[in-house]
Amino acid sequence: MTRLLTFERLKWASFAHSAAYTGLLITIFTGPDGLKTVLGWAHGIGWIAMSLACIVALRLRVINLRLAAAVAVLGGVGPFIGSAEFVRQHRRGAGTPVRQTSTSA
After folding, report:
1. Dist. CA 44–CA 7, nearest whole Å
2. What pTM was computed for the model?
């Protein structure tokens, strides 16, 4: 499972979700109804899929809680936030698995 769920794949899936949302925003007022329907479904299903994938990735320590929250909580109304957080963490070198720190005494 961890081979399928990588930081890079999640990042590109987030970009794809943001692209569908951008298309929806562009066509919402003047676009054809069929295209709005397709983009609306792509956004809705994309957000659900990204949320589930990020929850699993968080549990597998592929991403951290901040990124999972940005995608799962805020991604429904603005997937750009999740994509921006992927870029921010990639630039900081956070594209490696999250390590758990032990605080045992």
Report:
1. 22
2. 0.77
